[in-house]
Amino acid sequence: MKIYTKTGDEGNTSLIGGYRVSKSDLRIESYGTVDELNSWLGLIAEYAPKDRIAEIQHIQNQLFSVGAQLASKSSEQKRPFSAISSEDINELEHRIDYYEDLLPKMTHFILPGGSKASAQTHIARCVCRRAERIVVQLSRVDFVDKLLMVYLNRLSDYLFCLARAFTFWEEKDEIKWIPNT
């Protein structure tokens, strides 16, 4: 299989099922942003403790499913992948609960940073929030499985907790936001 097809040279691309759309279509923007998020997670996994790498890679696999769902124009389309489910969302919630139990209670808002891994995880969190906003926009004009929006919302919370965990694991201080300083 060749990596280049020349079918997108005019600014259009294909969705799953063969629908042709502009590369500027919200659907393309949504799964492109999810792809960007997935790339950030690949970098973040490089910083993770060995016992957390599989957790991050599992989420990366789920993000491929999110992207594939977003590349599908209809809920009736046959899909060669598992759709995001409420169980996937519950799993994220359990991971968030784990980190909240592990980490010190927050007494202030925190600034992104504290360590390289934490700062980059906060960037991934922001990319996740952008993906969520684009998916919400898309849902206003075209079909989107509602569970995708919930999953992305929960994933950004997970990434916030993971960013805090990196600071904790590296025994560094979180940077508290002190207003008017």
Describe the structure in your own words.
With 181 residues, the chain is mainly alpha-helical. The chain has a single domain, classed as Up-down Bundle (Hypothetical Protein Ta1238, Chain: A). 59% of the residues lie in helices and 6% in strands. It has 5 helices and 4 strands, in the order ββαααβααβ. The protein has helices at 26-45, 50-70, 86-102, 116-139, 146-169; strands at 12-14, 20-22, 110-111, 175-176. The strands form 2 sheets. The chain has a two-stranded antiparallel ribbon. A hairpin with a 5-residue loop joins strand 1 (12-14) and strand 2. Helix 1 (26-45) runs antiparallel to helix 2 and helix 3 (86-102) packs parallel to helix 5 (146-169). The radius of gyration is 18 Å and the shape is elongated. The model has no long low-confidence stretch (mean pLDDT 91).
Radius of gyration: 18 Å
- The average pLDDT score comes to 91
Residue share in helix = 55-70%
Q: How many DSSP helices?
A: 5
- The CATH topology turns out to be Hypothetical Protein Ta1238, Chain: A
Walk across the major sheet and give the strand order: 1-2
Structural class: mainly alpha
- Overall domain count: 1
What is the percentage of strand-forming residues? 5-15%
Q: Runs with pLDDT <50, length 5+?
A: none
CATH homologous superfamily placement: Cobalamin adenosyltransferase-like
Number of strands: 4
For the record, the CATH class is Mainly Alpha
Please give the CATH architecture: Up-down Bundle
